[in-house]
Amino acid sequence: MATPDTPQRGNDGTVGKALEILDRVAEYGRPVRFAELLAASRHPKATLYRLLRTLTNQGMLCFDDEQQTYAPGLRLVRLAHAAWRQSSLAPVARDHLDALSIEVGETIHLAQLDQGQVLYVDKRNARTPIEMFSQAGKVGPGFCTGVGKAMIAHLDGTARDDAIRRQAYVQHTPHTLASENAFRAELDRIRTDGVAFDREEHEPGIICIAAPILSTKGRVMGALSITSSTQRQSLEGLDAFRPLLLKTANDIAEAAESWQFPT
């Protein structure tokens, strides 16, 4: 189901409505019944049914006749795999993430920006894994995650303003910077310092250091983070990984540019 941090999309006619329904089905993380979709939908019953039928006919959704539930279809899975190969940093960054993970022994995140929010595209667990929100394929808030702040801080003026406008500024923890003014000041500091920190801003006990992945022209490709818990690390301890983090982010950027990463 939609959360306060779900990016808001405009109404782009029938295509926009269909994509909105795909988003809703995917957000449940399980097969979902028509009644559940209708209860959360802004569309009339007949419109929702027609759109679901079209998406099912096109293979974007599959319908289980016995359970009377909808789930993402195989055509959507094929498109997702193609997008992962062609538009995600994950394939080109894989070896770099493996090496960084072995070196630091902490959780590694690779993320890209989607409508001002964070899309986690790959992850390496720590030697002793930590329970946390982030998983590859999940979308998180931009304003209170290390990778989100690192990316937004390095956007150009208009794109940066747009990403700032899209934030929900929910107070997730006592440490969350839950206002636009505080967020803008933090972004200025990050742009000067070159790295971002998550100081338990999204989840209690979870901290990280993050760096942007930038092209030679300064375009934001994504971000990389080293994440731990306050039970076994400190921000100062994570900051000791800064040189290795920045080098890995730069290595991924170089590899992505030679791979002709899409604009």
Quick tags:
three-stranded antiparallel β-sheet, six-stranded antiparallel β-sheet, alpha+beta, about 260 residues, 9 strands, single chain, 2 domains, Beta-Lactamase, Arc Repressor Mutant, subunit A, about 45% helix
CATH homologous superfamily assignment of the largest domain? GAF domain
Give the total of domains. 2
H/E series? HEHHEEHHEEEHHHEEEHH
Specify the number of helices. Answer: 10
Let me know the number of strands.
9
Low-confidence segments, ≥5 residues, pLDDT <50? 1-10
Q: What general outline do the C-alpha atoms trace? A: globular
Strand content: 15-25%
The rounded distance between the terminal residues' Cα atoms is: 30 Å
**Structural class, from helix and strand content?**
alpha+beta
Major beta sheet summary: 6 strands, antiparallel
CATH A-level architecture of the largest domain: 2-Layer Sandwich
Rg for CA atoms = 19 Å
CATH hierarchy, class of the largest domain: Alpha Beta
The fold-level CATH name of the largest domain is Beta-Lactamase
In what order do the strands lie side by side in the largest sheet?
6-5-4-9-8-7
What is the residue-mean pLDDT, rounded to a whole number? 90
- Helix fraction, binned, reads 40-55%
